[in-house]
Write a structure and sequence with these properties.
47 residues, alpha+beta, two-stranded antiparallel sheet, 2 strands, 9% strand, ABATE_dom_sf, ABATE
């Protein structure tokens, strides 16, 4: 998914195409939670 080597760099890299029009991959609050789980920063939250 991301491979910046550090969670802080991986989070910054969720914003794409900085030199063009740019777009953010984390658009909704739940996107951040999903990113944290995918990055191994927290366990999956039960629903």
């Amino acid at each position: 998914m991301w491979d910046g080597g550090r969670p802080s760099l991986d989070l910054v890299n969720t914003y794409r195409d900085r030199k063009g029009r740019g777009w953010e991959l984390l658009r909704e609050p739940d996107d951040l939670g999903a990113w944290q789980v995918a990055a191994g920063l927290r366990p999956r939250r039960p629903r």
